[in-house]
Write a structure and sequence with these properties.
With about 230 residues, this protein is of the alpha/beta class. It has a single domain (about 5-220), classed as Rossmann fold (3-Layer(aba) Sandwich), CATH 3.40.50. The protein is about 45% helix and about 10% strand. The chain has helices spanning about 5-10, 15-30, 45-55, 70-75, 75-85, 105-110, 130-140, 160-170, 175-180, 195-205, 210-220, and strands at about 35-40, 60-65, 90-95, 120, 140-145, 150-155. A 6-stranded mixed beta sheet has the order 3-2-1-4-6-5, with helices on both faces. Strand 5 and strand 6 (about 150-155) form a beta hairpin.
Length: about 230
């Protein structure tokens, strides 16, 4: 997807309908909760989600989970600095740990420090994986989690890759270097995900050998996965 194609795609009725439905869902969700936050990784999906939400709630807390390797994986500092120009209510949550992350530890860190959170927005999509497709079909886009009674809100559930790419390009959202190198089908995370460790490390090695070598010094066992 390039900007020329995106400008054509954004005129399609299906895309316009998706935008309208997502806006309506976000507005309705915000009316049903009291203390929400946005769990934002600054990847393509959460970036689009954040831009849409800010139109309804410009001061909503935006929480970013970072790790020791985050700044080595991509140009997060630049992307975040561009978002900060919008004066977002940003908070970075540092999650320490080894090379392979524990998903629930990150969620726990994001939920911490404020006991009054009653809900959070996440940018997950059905198209991303079979597991997410099943989960979203079973639980829906707005549901209360049993473990903490917080409502998980997933406004991007029905978006496709072309929808995401179009919105990013047409609205000139800042995006990570990995998308520029590998296209919007690439997967990005602020920490090395357990399920994507080989791809993440090999991608970094190809895109930025200097950062890859620095990561090897940080986590010597990374050489066993790339």
């Amino acid at each position: 997807m390039d900007l020329k194609t995106a400008k054509i795609y954004c005129k399609l009725n299906g895309y316009k309908t998706l935008i309208n439905k997502t806006n309506a869902f976000i507005e309705d969700s915000l009316s049903k909760v009291k203390m929400p936050y946005v769990a934002c990784s600054f990847g393509k999906d959460s970036a689009v989600m954040l831009d849409l939400i800010l139109k309804f709630s410009p001061h909503i807390p935006v929480r970013f989970a970072s790790h020791p390797e985050t700044r080595l994986l991509d140009n997060y500092d630049f992307v975040i600095s561009e978002w900060m120009k919008k004066e977002i209510n940003f908070e970075e949550i540092f999650c320490d740990g080894g090379l392979i992350k524990v998903k629930h530890a990150q969620r726990k860190a994001l939920d911490a420090l404020h006991q009054n959170w009653d809900s959070f927005f996440v940018g997950i999509r059905k198209e991303e994986s079979f597991g997410r497709r099943v989960s979203l079909k079973k639980l829906g886009m707005f549901f209360k989690m049993k473990q903490n009674n917080r409502i998980k809100i997933s406004p991007m559930a029905n978006w496709k890759e072309n929808d995401i790419a179009t919105y990013v390009l047409v609205n000139n959202l800042p995006f990570l270097n990995k998308y520029a190198s590998e296209g919007f089908s690439a997967r990005t995370t602020s920490g090395i995900a357990r399920t994507n460790i080989h791809e993440t490390l090999n991608s970094l090695k190809q895109r930025d050998i200097t950062s890859y070598n620095q990561l090897l010094k940080l986590f010597p066992d990374a050489k066993n996965f790339s």
